[in-house]
Amino acid sequence: MVFIGNHSQFVDSVCAVVVKGQWGNLLQVKNASVLTSSTIHQVLLQLSLYGYGPFHSFPFFKWLDSIPHYSHSLQCSWAMIHILTEHKHFKTAQHMLEKIAHKDFLSSPSVLSTLVRTHDNPEVNSQVFSWLVIHYAKSKMTQDAIQVFEQMRLHEVKPHLHACTVLLNSLLKDGVTHMVWKIYKRMVQVGVVPNVYLYNCLFHACSKSGDVERAEQLLNDMDIKGVLSDIFTYNTLILLYCRKGMHYEALSIQDRMEREGISLDIVSYNSLIYGFCKEGRMREAMRMFSEIKNATPNHVTYTTLIDGYCKTNELEHALKMRKLMEAKGLYPGVVTYNTILCKLCQDGRIRDANRLLNEMSERKVQADNITCNTLINAYCKIGDLKSALKFKNKMLEAGLEPDPFTYKALIHGFCKTNELESAKELMFMLDFPPVIAHTLGL
């Protein structure tokens, strides 16, 4: 039997029953209403205080779920998570945390503020709240992850380095690069010491925003702190420099990698080749291609070179590169085909473009919007609206949705053939601003 005296004695009595594993006795209590979630919360804390870990408290906690009309409060669940974490039952604790993460407005500042003060073990608080940051960030609930991080910062709970990296990655995926730097600054303020993985997130942010100066500051910062760069660090820098046309700087990173014994991979080579192709420097691009070692050229390598040759009006070289690609057992995908199609259409070689399209169909390469728009635009430019509209219908049959580019090409086609009413109809469908209609003479 369970003794019902004052509340403190009742809690002690329940603790004794739990330790003996005689939970059924609790259901014999005449006044069953005393088994509230508030009481259970105190029982869990008391058991922990007496040195009884999850071996006793967790089976009891799970058993309570089977009692009709009883449900654990957030306080109860939070206490159980802390007990599990304190005793290194990390997987179970993390699973429990993820189950309650979307309930009880857990990510609201007021709730978090209360929870962070509930338990005074800084190591356990750091672990549990870091898990919460990771869970929200990976669940694409970035704002919730930020709110958890902010409450940790305000209450001087230091987040784990992995949680910081996951949060920054989540911000990058959301495209909010400016927030990456704000959150990083606050991470440093609470004593987080970045490692190479966190630095790589920051380099990625620099690459996205095209911020060369900040990337160079980061590299200098890593050198000063003795944090060794890896292949991802250098690949991000090479791509950033190549996008900016800074070939000397990109090649200096290649030299640095070789000095440090880090071999270039195909991503490194592809970026360097892309940099030269972007500037129309095909001789240097091909020299870099010939220097590839300890890596195998892939679809990206060949497509980049094919695109480079197309842009420098060297279609025959592009087609030779395509043959070389196939000789290596790599068959063109839709991106490669689109590159060649675009050049054929620009040169007015519509018949050759259609032959290539038939080849795509035979090889089961699915056309995309770019494929269709390229041909629609080519037909519109020569005033062949019949073929352009026929292609638009094929596009719909293939389950592709015409986009603004499709309609713009058709509008220009209608204007070219003086079918102004048809052009106006399309413009009204797309809700074009009047200024554009006026420019087109409609």
Structure explained in plain terms:
The protein is mostly helical and 442 residues long. The radius of gyration is 32 Å and the shape is elongated. It contains 25 helices and no strands.
Q: Work out the oligomeric state of the chains in this entry.
A: single chain
- How many helices does DSSP assign? 25
The number of E-state strands comes to 0
Mean of the pLDDT scores?
Answer: 88
Rough shape? elongated
Tell me what portion of residues adopts beta-strand conformation. under 5%
Give the SSE layout.
Blueprint (H helix, E strand, L loop, with lengths): L6 H14 L16 H13 L4 H11 L9 H13 L3 H11 L8 H10 L3 H17 L3 H13 L6 H13 L3 H13 L6 H14 L2 H14 L5 H13 L3 H13 L6 H13 L3 H9 L8 H13 L3 H13 L6 H13 L3 H13 L6 H13 L3 H13 L6 H13 L3 H11 L3 H6 L3
Helix pairs in contact: 1-2, 2-4, 4-5, 4-7, 5-7, 6-8, 7-8, 7-9, 9-10, 9-11, 11-12, 11-13, 13-14, 13-15, 14-15, 15-16, 15-17, 16-17, 17-18, 17-19, 19-20, 19-21, 21-22, 21-23, 22-23, 23-24
Describe this structure in a few short sentences:
With 442 residues, this protein is mainly alpha-helical. It has helices at residues 7-20, 37-49, 54-64, 74-86, 90-100, 109-118, 122-138, 142-154, 161-173, 177-189, 196-209, 212-225, 231-243, 247-259, 266-278, 282-290, 299-311, 315-327, 334-346, 350-362, 369-381, 385-397, 404-416, 420-430, 434-439.
